[in-house]
Amino acid sequence: MRKAADGGTKPRRRHALPGLNSYRDFRLLWTGSALSVMAERCSGMAFTLLILWHTGSKSSAGLVGFAALLPALLVQLPAGVLVDRWNRRGVMLVCVVGRMVAVATVAVALAGDRLYVWHIAAVAFVQGALTVFYQLAERATVRGVVPARQLSAAMATNEARSRAVNFVGHPASGMLFGISAWMPFMSSVGMYLLSLITLIRLRAKDDTKGKKDKKGKGKGGKGGQKRPMTAEIRAGLDWVWKRAYFRTALLIMAGSNLIFQALILSVAVVVRDSGRAAGTVGLIMAAGSVGGLLGAITGGVLSKRLPMRHTMIVAHVAWALVLPGTVVFHHPAALGTLFFITSHIGAAVTVAGMSHQVRITPNNMQGRVGSVVMLLVSGASSLGALGTGFLLDAYGTRQVLIGASVVMAVLAAVATLVFTRRGAALEDENNVAPPPERENEPAVVSSRTTLTLRRIDG
User: Fold this and answer.
1) Are the C-beta atoms of residues 39 and 191 closer than 8 Å to each other?
2) Of 280, 287, 351, 283, whose CA–CA distance to 315 is shortest?
3) Collapsed DSSP state (helix, strand, coil) of residue 177
4) Cα dist. 1→4, 7, 275 in Å?
5) Mean pLDDT throughout 264-283?
6) What is the rounded distance in angstroms from the CA atom of residue 40 to the CA atom of residue 131?
7) Could you give the C-alpha distances from 198 to 29, 86, 94, 155, 387, in angstroms and in order?
8) 212 pLDDT band (50/70/90 cuts)?
9) Where are the alpha helices (DSSP H) in 21-116?
10) Worst-scoring range by mean pLDDT, 131-135, 193-197, 264-268, 429-433?
11) 189 and 329 in contact (C-beta within 8 Å)?
């Protein structure tokens, strides 16, 4: 409080913070990660094109897609524990180097006119596994490079970055693939190298060292000893499981992610079967990226103004209305429009969800909780890729797209029932408050939540 001219007091004004670009480490983290995402998207898109256009096997394409997404099921939970234990900047650097070397082997093999499905699948798995580690480390690092009040803005900016990279990466991958099969992979190697050079300059605070729990022990237990990995994984699972509202939202999002993975592969098959060039797939995905970029901006606003329950209902109902269009319209322009709409909604939900998760999670559990979130939300995508490949071979694209539309309608109905029931509003408010486990660096809360906690504490 400060004194007014009449001797009274005036509330202290909350000083405006500088823009995100004024934080050096955030700029470096953003740029290095943008290059890393660009490299991953360029090679990831090329994996599907390579298998479909050179082998014609839908099941093989699904298998490679499954290998790329399988780490979301196998690696997420141990990765979350290790990211909380290790230096997060070091994790990101190792991941960039590992992915660069793996993708380089594909470029060399294709330059020598050698193509093996098992090799492509193995590289896709390695890149996917290291990407899991990278994403968890990067998301946790954001809290150390921007003030708490700008966390939502930073998350929205990062999501916008990813969507903008998709806009460039997908069509670029298709164009380079049209010139020569090895070119998208060699381009990815170059971008990984630039990402490595940028991230080396990062000086983010290592907040994984010297943490003390509320009993004064090290983060591993007595004498600062680390707990077994299974215990750490269980702690992350328990944290999410005890929050029924948060857990339900994640499960519904997992279902919708499975549907969208099926949609992506189905559209690639539609384009190929219609005799169009591989670059057409990239252009359709680019249209989705534009929608995603705008959606990321929308998500930054939604995360501040709209409760999660409302976001979930609106998103899934909108998806349920849009998805049947893929059954009827197969022209690239129509498919691009549909991807624009679905990606716009998806990006907004992603930003709102990420901001919510990072805000309510204790700092020294960011990796573990983030890994559980990614396991539920993204792990379903790997199953979607594998199952879709075989379903396309067995039933064709029309039946698969009809099935996807029906499942999305069911998810929309479930979301509406769950998040409009009595008590949903109260649970939404309660999930904004910091979790029971108090940490040295508490989660960001709104002023209304702070007042509520003060009343509870007496």
Assistant:
1) yes
2) 351
3) helix
4) 9, 12, 71
5) 82
6) 8
7) 8, 20, 13, 20, 38
8) very low
9) 24-55, 58-69, 71-74, 76-85, 88-111
10) 429-433
11) no
